[in-house]
Amino acid sequence: MAKEWAENLVHDINEHMRQQDVQEAEARIAYLEGKLNETNIAGMQQVFYQLIESETRTVMLANAQSEYIFKTVDPAVVPQEKSGPKRALIAVIATMLGGMLGVFVVFIMAFVRNGATQTESATHGSSVEEQ
Questions:
Q1: How does DSSP assign 79-96, residue by residue?
Q2: With CB atoms 3.0 to 4.6 Å apart as the test, which of 36, 60, 67, 104 could cross-link to 48 if both were Cys?
Q3: Are 56 and 97 in contact (CB under 8 A)?
Q4: Rounded to whole angstroms, what are the CA distances from 16 to 9, 12, 35, 67?
Q5: pLDDT, tens digit (0-9, with 9 covering 90-100), for 107-123
Q6: Is the pTM of this model over 0.70?
Q7: Using CB atoms within 10 A of its CB, is residue 55 exposed (0-12), middle (13-18) or buried (19+)?
Q8: Which residue, 75, 64, 70, 99, is CA-closest to 11?
Q9: Which residues are within 8 A (CB) of 16 and not within 5 positions of it... i.e. 6 or more apart?
């Protein structure tokens, strides 16, 4: 799908720019022809003919090229293998890390309880000896 989008985007931009340039060149040609009809000076007519020739060349080149603005250097291809996250590997690693974290939390809780029990027995033991 991404390949089609890229190709269509490049094609649409090329067509839009080609049509815009052709319309602008044709408008300039029409303007130059109007000015050519208004003048009787041979030197000015020669300049107008050269400008009209230049604009006609622009129209011709725009219509002759299939890739007008953007040229495809390396065409888009559909990948041979699926690309993306490996969900099975992520699930296995997450399960292992979650299990290790759970065991670590249990050890910490047991250590804290065991330390609290020893502190209480030491505190109770000294008070029993005093009596």
A1: -SS--S--HHHHHHHHHH
A2: 36
A3: no
A4: 11, 6, 29, 12
A5: 999 888 887 777 766 66
A6: no
A7: buried
A8: 70
A9: none
Q: What's the whole-number mean pLDDT along residues 90-108?
A: 95
Q: Name the DSSP letter for residue 35.
A: H
Q: CA–CA separation, 12 vs 23, rounded Å?
A: 16
Calpha distance 21→68 (Å, rounded): 10
Whole-angstrom distance, CA of residue 29 vs CA of residue 58: 11
Helices (H), the chain: 2-38, 42-64, 87-130
Query: Mean of the per-residue pLDDT values for the chain?
Result: 83
Residue identified by tokens 């027995």 is 121
